[in-house]
Amino acid sequence: MITSNQNERVKQLRKLQDKKHRAATGLFAAEGEDLVRAALAAGSEPVELFCVESAPADLSGHPCALAIEGAVLDSSSALGSGSRVIGVFEQVWAELSADFALAVYLDAIADPGNVGTVLRSALALADGPVILGAGCADPYSPKAVRASMGAVFARPPARANAQELADLPVRRVALDGAAELPLAGVAGAGLDVLPTIVCVGAEREGLTPETLAIADVAAAIPMLPGGPESLNAAIAASIALYEIGRALGDQVQGAVHGAGKTASASGNPPSTEN
Length: 274
Prior knowledge:
By secondary structure, this protein is of the alpha/beta class. The protein has two domains: about 10-90, CATH 3.30.1330.30; about 95-260, SPOUT methyltransferase, trefoil knot domain (Alpha/beta knot, 3-Layer(aba) Sandwich), CATH 3.40.1280.10. About 35% of the residues lie in helices and about 20% in strands. It has twelve helices and twelve strands. The strands form three sheets. A six-stranded parallel beta sheet has the order 8-7-6-10-9-11. β6, α6 and β7 (about 130) form a beta-alpha-beta unit. α6 (about 110-125) packs parallel to α7 and α6 packs parallel to α11 (about 235-250). The model is unreliable at about 255-274 (pLDDT under 50).
């Protein structure tokens, strides 16, 4: 049993809270029984699995399980205390392609909670990956992994810059609060011809000029007068995925329940996040 905070494995686990160490090692931590079980269900095997004495038998009996004192595990927890299980996993990135009916591109979404939430919404509402552009938070940070509720394992993210997005044979729908076309008006504009990517920017700044320039159509989510000026980026992405997914009908619904995924292991997460 690991009983010291100075144990080398514990030191490495603690370092995974730092983005630079995640980037250097290609590893990340998933904290809690639900997330670890979601990883195993998606076919992701841990590199190491730290388990306290009271951890569930199905996890403490895993071949990679390491027994650890609760106080020592607490010292390595991003939550501070209370976790009985923390798993270390390899980062996985989906290959960039147009093999989907509907996906979402995040443009400079710096909040890891929003990135994780969009991963979760996309798994529920689309058949393509979340594609991360420049300036996005690390989807393998502790906060993003928790917010994804296991979606980061079930459908790993992809990454691309604006030019790579422009080169894809897809239809790019930009969410832009200043657009005259309401989101519902996008439905009749050839959605069934090409795969569709919904492009979402940060709540305050919106999409970058580079992303707006490559959009095929810009649309806004109508809001009641007197309400907020903008929506949270994750909420806006979820609304757009639902609305466009409904317009696509069987193309998305059939794919959501039967899609495969192409992914590759890599240890170089995108852009900036603490």
